[in-house]
Hints:
two-stranded parallel ribbon; alpha/beta; 13 helices
Amino acid sequence: DAALRAGCGLSSVIIGKTLAEALIPHIIESTLFPVADNGEGTMLFDEEEFKSALDGAASICVGMGWGQGEDYPKILEYILMNYNLPLVIDADGINTIAKMNTDTLKKTNCKVILTPHLKEFSRLSNYSIEEIMDRPVQIAKDYANRNNVILLLKGTTTIITDGEEVLLTDTGTPAMAKGGSGDVLSGIIAGINAFSKESILLNTAAAAYINGKAAEFACIEKNEYSALPSDTIHNIYKAINYIIEK
């Protein structure tokens, strides 16, 4: 939903076949592409299935709701090595990358966008949280440059960098500390990059701004205690209108 409200024309959810039936009632505007799994929802890698699932994709987002699976490094490596698209890696996708050889990131034709919070970035970068907080911009910039990625480091001030340029956004509210808020951000990034490839760095920064501003509008409707990630999704249009009218 977040990707669609951010502007992409078609959203497809790739999921293990075991979970597909349970998800169908909740997928209204998006399409569903079930793939082989282990009988408990954890996806298995079948190259032909993933080739079909990703056919025609303009932007890819992986990791949200993944959990841990033995084939996930294979799935991620297949995407990294065979596509030339904006690729958002979030949540358990970041945990998967942390276990893989980061040389894969340097070889890919994808424009990888990593969206860690501090703890996730600590695992990725091998810096302690304290070290990152002491030099967040420089460490983020160095990591992005070294690994050929766009890094979006979540925080009160969000840092977005491709290793050369650094952009900062400070929209948002404490309500975004709830689980699922990061998934909304990833969907917005994927949605914007699906229809605009002019500057993936600027697209990513714009997505962070829109996500925070939509959460602010959600808190006006509800409050900082009661606003949910779904409320942020429903207010994406207000954030975009705010930018258009500004």
